[in-house]
Design brief:
The chain has one domain. The protein has 4 helices and no strands. It has helices at 9-61, 63-70, 74-83, 88-91. The termini are far apart.
Length: 92
Amino acid sequence: MPEQYPVNDQARTRLREAQKLESKALQAVIAARKARDRQQQRLDAANRKVDVALVELVGTSGVWRASRLTGEDVKTLQAKARAAGLRTSQIH
């Protein structure tokens, strides 16, 4: 089925205006997504720093003490410590 085109100048003008608005709206969506991605990268980096600090605390104080001091779940701390390469003797 062939695409229908506007039949008069006013309709063409309205279509062009609608297309311009659509293009601007799409550009805004793209810019917002890029900004969100940048913020997510910053958040991911901050979370990695927190994880490193938590693992250091577990290595220093043990998992139970680290849990009490930080409010983090013991199992979560154990998993992070293991993932970071701490031996079982360093976790408890």
